[in-house]
Amino acid sequence: MATKVVIYGLSTEGYSLACQIALNGGDVQIIDESTPSAISIKQDIAKSYPSVQALKDDEPLLAMTSIDAAISKAQVLVFAPRIRKTGQDIKIEINSKFKDAVSNIKKGCNVVYGLGTGFGGNSENISLLEHVTGLKVGKNISYYYYPLSKESTIKPYIGSSDSKENETLKKLLTNEKKFNFLSLNSAEYFHAIDILKQFSSQTSILEVCKFAKDSVTKSDLNSEKLGELYLDDFIDGLFDLRSLSSSFEGASSLMYLINGSMKGLDGYIKRLIDETRLILKKNELKASRTKILLLWTLDQHEMKGEKIEKLLELETKLKDYIGDVESISQPVDIFQNDKTTIIVVCSKRDFDYIMKNNKDDELIILKANPLCLSLIHISEPTRPY
């Protein structure tokens, strides 16, 4: 008999896992937090709809049950919600949703926590889980830590409250032979290493590229794949980095690494704004006669809202200097206005799109990459300046 799996959160990561579980033979339902129902994901749905957006756009007829009924029968419950609050409100939102997710679980359920946490975060989750349910982890329920990401690469490990291998869970989550069940502490440390490696590398690139001023140096660095990295890439995992930061107090080498990465990102946002202002100055453009378009196609269904937050921050700060600022995603006819348009392109996908689809005669493009390259795009050819 198929294992009954419930995923709490119709997020990109949650849906991707639901499809994978359905294709691996699991009986899986996914809870859309915005509606009071659990949607059944069958193999045909998993094959036909590659994303949450595709599923929502087509609105196929899906089998539904109430959330309480679905959770009470779940043998595996995966927590993969969409988090949209910022600052101090994030923890309140997460805890509120976690309580909703686990309040009706029964004995024997395996709870899988899919958000990245800082050190000790899983101990707090277990305390909350036991308080809400009256059940005991290690006695009549099990708890696992499996931070989900949008990447297709699946982590080769999962944190477990008893460190023991669970063959049923392993078959549902992965087809890989090498998949280790670790202690919760070990899984937290491995995830921290992954996040810190990513941000340390990115911060090094951003900080060094600040010194590239002349066109020859910029061109050399651009040819070495650095030009392929964009703001979109730099923000990935910021939620997890912040979670790590909140688990430490006082000065330590680790805090210097974390704070340095966060300051590096803040500095880069400021640099993007300065570069935009510089374009106005170089081209003798008046702020009142200039329109700024922030082109960043975001996945609105991601678990974490860090990119939405950074886009809003960039838009707000640019408006301090130029009144007409708008954020857009893969437009068709956006250039029909009487102002000079500067497009700040925030992802490689968006850059490729605009280079292919621009029908405008002349367009100023600022690439939000480590080199902040400016281009004037005239129909076919492109020339840096």
Description:
It is a single chain. This protein is an alpha/beta fold. It folds into 2 domains: 4-180, NAD(P)-binding Rossmann-like Domain (Rossmann fold); 210-384, Rossmann fold. It is 43% helix and 17% strand.
Q: Output the CATH class name of the largest domain.
A: Alpha Beta
Oligomeric category: single chain
Sheet of most strands: 9 strands, mixed
Give the neighbour order of strands across the main sheet.
4-3-2-1-5-6-7-8-9
Q: What is the strand tally?
A: 15
The CATH superfamily label of the largest domain reads NAD(P)-binding Rossmann-like Domain
Unreliable segments of 5+ consecutive residues: 379-385
Helix content: 40-55%
SSE arrangement, N to C: EHEEHHEHEHEHEEHEHHHHHEHEEHEEE
- Assign the CATH topology of the largest domain: Rossmann fold
> Strand percentage, roughly?
15-25%
Inertia-based shape: globular
| Count of alpha and pi helical runs | 14
Short précis:
This protein is α/β, with parallel strands linked by helices.
Which keywords apply here?
385 residues; alpha/beta; Rossmann fold; 2 domains; 6-stranded mixed sheet; 43% helix; globular
Record the SSE blueprint.
Layout: E1 4-8, H1 12-23, E2 27-32, E3 37-41, H2 43-48, H3 52-58, E4 64-66, H4 67-73, E5 76-79, H5 89-102, E6 110-113, H6 121-133, E7 142-145, E8 157-160, H7 167-173, E9 180-183, H8 184-209, H9 215-223, H10 231-235, H11 238-245, H12 253-282, E10 290-295, H13 306-318, E11 325-328, E12 340-345, H14 348-357, E13 363-367, E14 374-377, E15 382-384
Helix pairs in contact: 5-6, 8-12, 11-12
